[in-house]
Write a structure and sequence with these properties.
Elements (H helix, E strand, L loop, with lengths): L1 E10 L8 E16 L3 E4 L11 H12 L8 E8 L9 H17 L5 H12 L5 H6 L2 E7 L2 E7 L6 E6 L6 H6 L7 H19 L6 H4 L6 H4 L6 H11 L3 E4 L6 E5 L2 H12 L6 E5 L7 E4 L1
Parallel strand pairs: 3-4
Antiparallel strand pairs: 1-2, 1-11, 2-4, 2-5, 5-6, 7-9, 7-10, 8-9
Helix pairs in contact: 1-2, 2-3, 9-10
The structure holds L-homoserine (HSE).
Length: about 300
């Protein structure tokens, strides 16, 4: 039996569309056991207890890619989730990583970190959730051809990540569907400046630079229209003096950064009175990434 713990993630971080992401101390845990044959899944809704399950598909992807399907046995998967589903906190990435890491153990392939990073990125389609979920910390990553170039970015320890999670879901597919096919040159220049400033601010502990750096013109203006309450939360966080506010991944979760517990509590009090039951999770960066806890 193996137990794998994978952190939630927040992708994009404002200007870093499809490249920046960070891992958070909120976790999904998966227990795997090989069977002689068949598939048994517990801990999720009935509609996911079949071969279409993302954890199982990710597990099988490894055996198919390395052409070792003859080694694949039956599988039992137990799921214990803390990460809200379809909210922009990387719940799908946790499933992909768990499936791939379990396959790496049971197949005996002993894949390197670079190979694992490529596999999980291929399955997800973009690297900004799966890379921090696997490695921990804040990360930057790009996929070019069949290679992922990724690195870890240090972050100030005192940052509190306030994840404001509404009671409604928003699929990544729908949220990507409202993005334009082309962007204005000025908007691209706006983001390039800010993404480089954000990396530098985080790496060098320049908390004063985070706020201007977190702005975005490539995805948030289009997606905000899908999220009832977006403007109210952004405006309130601004009034309270938060260090940066951005859409977490494809949304609908909104992330607000501060070093001040009292500001976090004030935003929580505001959000819980709003329609759609917004709940605030006070989170910190996870520095360990995915962990295999028992073999
Ligand atoms: N970078 C992705 C997006 C993250 O914004 O669509 C969601 O998976």
């Amino acid at each position: 039996m193996i137990k794998i713990r994978v952190p939630a993630t927040s992708a994009n971080i404002g200007p870093g569309f499809d490249c920046l992401g960070l891992a958070l101390n909120l976790y999904n845990t998966f227990v795997f056991e090989e069977l002689d044959s068949g598939l048994e899944i517990t801990g999720c809704e009935d509609e996911f207890k079949n071969e279409d399950n993302l954890i199982y598909r990710s597990f099988k992807y490894v055996y198919e890619k390395y052409d070792i399907m003859d080694k694949m046995k039956g599988l039992k998967i137990g799921i214990d989730t803390q990460v809200p589903v379809c909210r922009g906190l990387g719940s799908s990435a946790t499933c992909i990583i768990a499936g791939v890491l379990a396959a790496n153990v049971y197949s005996g392939l002993d894949l390197s970190t670079d190979e694992l990073v490529l596999l999980v990125t291929e399955i997800e389609g973009h690297p900004d959730n799966v890379v921090p979920a696997l490695l921990g910390n804040m990360t930057t990553a790009i996929l070019e051809g069949n290679k992922v170039y990724a690195d870890i970015i240090n972050t100030p320890d005192e940052l509190i990540f306030c994840a404001l999670v509404p009671n409604f879901r928003l699929s990544t597919e729908k949220s990507r569907g409202v993005l334009p096919k082309e962007v204005d040159y000025k908007d691209a220049v706006f983001n390039v400046g800010r993404v480089s400033l954000l990396v530098s601010a985080m790496q060098n502990n320049r908390i004063d630079l985070i706020k201007p750096a977190c702005k975005d013109l490539l995805h948030q203006p289009y997606r905000s229209k899908l999220i009832d309450g977006y403007d109210d939360i952004f405006n309130r966080a601004e009034e309270l003096g938060f260090l940066g506010v951005f859409l977490s991944g494809a949304g609908p979760t909104i992330m607000a950064l501060t070093t001040d517990e009292k500001k976090a509590d004030a935003l929580r009090d505001f959000a819980k009175e709003m329609p759609n039951g917004w709940n605030l999770y006070k989170l910190k960066i996870d520095k360990e990434g995915a962990l295999i806890e028992g073999i």
